[in-house]
What does this fold into?
Amino acid sequence: MQDEQNLVRRAQQHDEEAFAELYEKYFDKIYRYISLKIGNRFEAEDMTQQVFINALSSISSFRWRGLPFSSWLFRIAHNLVVDYFRKKTRQPVSSLNESITASEDNPQKVIEQKMNIEQLELASKGLTPAQQEVIALRFAGELPIAQVARVMGRSEGAIKALQHSAIVALRKILNVVQ
It folds into this structure.
């Protein structure tokens, strides 16, 4: 945590190397979170870049409040996802299948991945928005329960219960789909 505080402090003083380290440390987690939420890897790449552009432009206003720096980044990402869906309400949302590249060497593997993604997409539609959010933060964002609780503004117990109910619901839905 001390190293992170030092990096953030240096980034706030316009140290480009410090911000680059923060970028490298969190880019993949933020990207996976956004990609899972919106289901379009190209849009997710752009939005992840926007998270860091927003963070860079407002890092001087960041204040430590007992939360990891990544919580602040995930809050920025969450707000961009909300804005994305507001803008897309009249347009169909792209499928997660776009995230599978056509350059895969094994066609059978590509088909299996597409089937699994389609099943997961279908199953996740049966979850509540809060359940979808906790699954995205925990598994795509790889955040610990305590941090998910802070990001979502809930207690750790509530997050554990929400995660449990989401996993149970996904299992039930996936068993029906198969």
